[in-house]
Amino acid sequence: MRNYEMMLIARPDLDDAGNQALLDRVSTLVNANGGAIEKMEPSKKQRLAYEINDLREGIYTVVYFKGEPRTAEELTRVLKITDEVVRFMIVRPEE
Length: 95
Hints:
Number of strands: 5
Order of helices and strands: EHEEEHE
Largest sheet: 5 strands, antiparallel
């Protein structure tokens, strides 16, 4: 299994329950596709470096997980069509 790191920016108008539901969905997707969540940094609302879709803020969360390439591919596929997600990026850190 490979190590992955994901930065997720959610819509700023999500309440705590909505944000937690999104993170639970990410966790479920990782586990269902042969991966495991290593660590999830606490979410924090921050100002964006530039405006995206008329939004000036976002809820940032960093997720560290292990998985197969298909795990990252499925996560990418689902997050692209999730309305609550403004931006995300999945990378493999140097080992």
